[in-house]
Every structure is written in C-alpha cells, then in structure tokens.
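Students often ask why we bother predicting the structure of a whole assembly rather than each chain alone. The short answer is interfaces. A chain on its own may look different once its partners are present, and contacts between molecules only exist in the joint model. In this exercise we take two input lines together and write out one structure for the complete complex. Read the inputs first and try to guess which parts will touch.
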Amino acid sequence: MTLAGGVGAARLLAGLVQVVDPSSVTAVVNTGDDMVLHGLHISPDVDTVTYTLGGVSNLDTGWGVAGETWHVMAALENLGGEAWFRLGDRDLATHLYRTQRLSQGATLSEVTAELARARGVGVRLLPMSDDPVRTRLTLAETAGDLPAGSDVAFQDYFVRLGHGVAVRAVSFTGADAARPAPGVLEALAAAEQIVICPSNPIVSIGPLLAIPGIGAALAARRDDVVAVSPIVAGAALKGPADRLLVELGHEASVAGVARCYAGVAGTLVIDEADAGLAGAVEAEGLRAIVAPTVMSTPERAAALGRLVLDARR
Amino acid sequence: MTLAGGVGAARLLAGLVQVVDPSSVTAVVNTGDDMVLHGLHISPDVDTVTYTLGGVSNLDTGWGVAGETWHVMAALENLGGEAWFRLGDRDLATHLYRTQRLSQGATLSEVTAELARARGVGVRLLPMSDDPVRTRLTLAETAGDLPAGSDVAFQDYFVRLGHGVAVRAVSFTGADAARPAPGVLEALAAAEQIVICPSNPIVSIGPLLAIPGIGAALAARRDDVVAVSPIVAGAALKGPADRLLVELGHEASVAGVARCYAGVAGTLVIDEADAGLAGAVEAEGLRAIVAPTVMSTPERAAALGRLVLDARR
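Now the answer. The structure tokens for the assembled complex follow.
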C-alpha cells in the first residue's frame, strides 16, 4: 500500500499499476489540501491521483483534466467572481458530484470510491480521513495585504500566493480529532509493503502522519516502509518542498527527507544525483537505495514502481 | 414597482424598461423556488429575470442563458451524477458566484444586486427575502417511488416530475419567520404604482404574499395595485398555473385569478380572449382591463408595459 500526495504520488502509482495488479494496490491520499470554494468540496490530491490513474490527467499542467474547457471559469471572471483557483468544466463536474453526494450524507471515502470507479481506476483509493483536516501555514513575511504571522489555508499559500512566500509554521487543523478513514489502519497492518510516495514530506505526507494512529501504524511496520525522496539534488521536482524544508528548520536534501521519515520508514530511495548523500541518509538510520527516481516517462515510472516493490529491507 | 416570478414576469419587465427609465423600476422576485443542488445556491426566478433583463436569456427554453454550452453537465452525467436539473456552463458561473458570496457572509440581496450590475441590469432587483423560504408541494397522487401525500420541493415538482403530477397542498416553509428583504416594504409604501406580473399566483406570487408584511403592504395600497393575469382563455401560457389553480380549489380562469388577488389588487388586466369574463372579474371586486396580454414579441411586451403603467384605478 502507498501513502500519497498529489502529482509525484500519482506518477509513482501510475508506474506501480504497470507492474502489479492495480487491485492489489491501496493508496491513502492526503486531504489536508481540501477546500470548499464556491460551495464546492474540492479534494485536489485525490483528484490528481484519480485523474492520473483514470488516464485523463493534464500532463502539461500537473493538475486538472486533459483537453479541458473553461466556459464556467470565463463566465465567472466576467461576473467578477473569484477565479484564482482554476476549475475547468470537466473538473467542476467532479466537485459538483462530490459535493452533492456529501450533502446526501455519503462519506468522503464513499464518494472517492465512486469517482474512482466512474473513472475506471483499479487502485483502491482511500482519503486519509473522512473527517476534515486542513493544512494551514503561518506566513513568515508579509504577502500583499496579509501581514507576517497570518495563518492561511494550503491552497491560499500554494495557488493564490503561488507558494512564493516564506512560512514559519505548518499546522493540521482537525487532525487531533480525525479518525483514519475506514480501511486505512487495516491496510497499514495487512500490507505486504508500505510505500511513501515522492510527495512533500511536510504538507502532503505530514497531514497523514498527524492523524492519530497512522504514524504509530507506520512506525510499527517501519522495516516494511519504503519512502521515495521528492527532493532530487537539493530541489523539489515540483512545488515548494525544498523551500518549506529549509524554512521549517530541515535540510533541503535527501538527508533532510530521511530525518523527516526516520521514525516511520526503514528505507529511503534517493536519486542517482544524490548518490553521494547515501551515507548521510544511513546516518539518519534509514537504508539508502540509489536509483533513477525522476519519472519523466511511463517507463521510468514503471521501473521505479518495480524498484520500490523490491526495496523492502 | 413590481412583484415578479419567472418567465412571465421577466417578459413584462423587459417590456416596462422599453417605456420607462429602468432605474425607476423595482422588482421584488420570488425566491421560494430557490434550492441548493451540488452545494450551489440556485435562484431560478431571480436568474430568469436577470438573464432576461441582461439580454442573455435563452428565449427558446425560457430558462438559462442563450448560446449555452453543457460541458459540466455532460461530464457530470458521465460520472453518474444528478443531472435532472440542467445547469449550463455559463449558468453555473452565476451559481458559483452566488454561493461563494453567500459563504463570505453577503446577503442574497447583495448578491442579487451584484449579479444584476454585472449583467448590466438597470432595474432594481430585490429577492423577496434574505431569509430562506421554500415552496413545497404535497402530492395528491403517486409519482414514481413517491407515494401520494409526499411533500416535495418546488423544483422536484416542477422539473424532476415535470409538473405532471396532481398536488393537493402548497406550503411556504420558513415564510412565517422570514422578513421582507431590505427595501421591499419601503418600495411598496413609496411606489407610485404596484404591478403584480403575470406569474403563477400560487407558487410564484404566493410565496411573496406569505411573508409577513408584504400582503398587508399590498392591501394598504390596493387601489394602486394592478395584476396581470397569467391565465389566458383558461390556460397558463407556461407552466402548471392552470392545473394548480384547479387542484387547489380555484378556478382556472381570470375569475379564479381575480379571487386569488381580491384582497391585494384593485385591477386585473385580462386578455382579449377573456373579454367575456370581465364581469366575473368585476364580481370579485376588481376592475377588469381587457388588453392583448400575450407578450410574443418585444413590441407586445412594451405595449403591455405601457398599459399597466396607465392602468392604475
């Protein structure tokens, strides 16, 4: 089974399903980025994984649906509405569906399964929790009319502010009271192997680890947990993981990632570019496996999938 | 000022603005049909009036936006979502805007004014109330899996059931506690003249009259209130007004309409086709004015607008 954020996780999962039966794979997906906008419940990471595994993701942007149209957003802009979070027409249908089902009393788990099935996704997708957990960031500096110290929702930081502002703290509102979604702890206990996908350790995997029970379940299976570093040669392939690590007192390197995961993972897969840091990873108590980790093609993703399956200590 | 439902009201208002300064016209619009679907707050009558006065209404269907596209709805159907209430892409932008603004604490009055301004509507549009009032119908017979006696929301009756089922009662949930929207009572008190548009007396104008204060304010101005019959030659031009009148114990004729409005209107404009019933209208205590009322062209709508302006007793 896998712990997943957005784009990096989706790519690794797309690699995994090329080398194993998709139905044997469970992905527990971050919902700390979820938001309600225009009254619609949006689950960005769940959608990225679903669209990618459903073969409809927009590979150019890394989010949304391929061949998307923008009629609603264009009309909303004409009305003077909030259009900073770009929602394509087909993407909107997902959010309408989810919101309507939730309003009828369905759980996020149920809706996630329904949307995955509708898109022909064979992997079992679980949100990390059916309870609301919201990743929030405390700004370390002024951003527009937001003074330093402002507490902003993840998408405000990531999209509206273009993750171009320094942060000094991250919190996961609601995590203390959240229960893992049905099946999450069972899957963690029963899995032959557990993979932490190459997602942001702080804001993508961090929310999962903040939910009572999930971190402990991982720690109990530490030898079977293989993480893939999202940091390659000191930089994030996508997003602000490198800067966030530094801003929050970590090191933007595979050694910094190893320190984040030292309690829950026995192995860290690092890129060939970071071969020289294998010793630093081992110094954190994790075995280092050096391999090509940049999933620039489906073949490379499949090769990485095969590698993590064989990587268990 | 005018009391308005959907299509018939929108047409008369479009006629009025041809003959008077739009800014001198206030329309208090029914919101009893409002609903939340897919998490979105939809105000069908307000939208019909706004789209019509904004020059973007779909004249073929009588609802929605001209030249509409349906990408979201098609994708929603592919997902197995609820698609019985057809929401075009441009129409959806209206609902996203409204829902987002309401979630930010704006009132329905404020949002209605913003959307009207964005569409270049010169008439002052007021929802009947900023408080939720919901028109509900009690079915007199079985409809699909709904047994007789079921209590359904207006759009379930009107759209989902295609208003093809008999009803035995109408109620306006929340009306008792609802306050007229800001400006409504002031406009009723100050207006030179008050026009009840050719809308369904029971489910379009009925909700307005059910709000404490509005009926009394009309009754106090009864001599200045001119209603236009939505029933022509015993039939509704659009919708189920004729059947509803009969099912609820009224007469599907201009005399039946006169009886509905006897307490609040001094004058009823009836179509030439109903000239023979002028006496029956007068017997209900209303003056009858006979005129062409079918607004099949903008010219006819303007002529009817001119006529109602001159019609005050």
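Check your guess against this: The longest strand of chain A covers residues 167-173.
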